[in-house]
Amino acid sequence: MKTAFITGANKSIGFETARQLLQQGYHVYLGSRTLENGLKAVQQLNSEGLHKVEAIQIDVTDQGSVKTARAEIGFKTETLDVLINNAGINGGMPQSALQADISAFRRVFDTNYFGVVMQYSGRFLTNGVGIVHVDVWQQNGRPPARF
Q1: What does the pLDDT read at residue 131?
Q2: Entry's InterPro entries (predicted)?
Q3: Within the chain, how many helices (H) and strands (E) appear?
Q4: 29 within 8 A of 119, measured Cβ to Cβ
Q5: Residues in CB range of 94: below 8 A, 6 or more apart
Q6: 57, 32 in Cβ contact below 8 A?
Q7: Between vectors from CA 142 to CA 13 and to CA 108, what angle results, nearest 5°?
Q8: Cα separations (Å) of 101 from 98, 106, 124?
Q9: How far is CA 45 from the centre of its chain?
Q10: Total structural domains in the chain?
Q11: Which residues pair with 85 in a beta bridge?
């Protein structure tokens, strides 16, 4: 059975990706910043008859959390066929990039850039193939930042 781990999978694009992979016969590790939100997403998928899914708590901005998630998955499987880096934030868009506080940029980079780097450096049980990084740069058909 093929396995997949999806960060930010408790809602939106990540949730739908989990649903689609489950329908294709994958066992999905559903990553969520809070275990509570992950378990709710698992319950929703279970109610749809999709049962090969487990919640994994992961905060991609916290190296300890990334290591813990990697270890937890490592106890369950020797390798992942697919790692989907979907977790991300928009920094409270829409807002003007010229007027946004630098702390907003730091939060976005911590999650959307360094979070991905931590997952790659943790090797997350992949053999270098099957890694997907999701970037959503538009909101409502428009770029997220206005200059």
Answers
A1: 53
A2: NAD(P)-bd_dom_sf, SDR_fam
A3: 5, 7
A4: no
A5: 139, 142, 144, 145, 146
A6: yes
A7: 60
A8: 9, 9, 33
A9: 17
A10: 1
A11: 133
Copy the structure tokens of residue 112: 């959307």
Question: Tokens 């487990």 label which residue?
Answer: 54
Alpha-carbon distance 51 to 28, whole Å? 9
CATH of the domain at 9: 3.40.50.720
Question: Distance between CA atoms of 141 and 46, rounded to whole angstroms?
Answer: 33
Q: Tens digits of per-residue pLDDT, 18-52?
A: 999 999 999 999 999 999 999 999 999 999 999 99
Residue appearing with tokens 């749809």: 48
56: nearest Cα among 37, 38, 82: 38
SS3 3: strand
The range of the structural domain enclosing residue 28 comes to: 3-146
Reported pTM: 0.79
Q: Is there a contact between 39 and 10 (Cβ–Cβ < 8 Å)? A: no
Which residue, among 74, 62, 61, has the nearest Cα to 29 in the 3D structure? 74
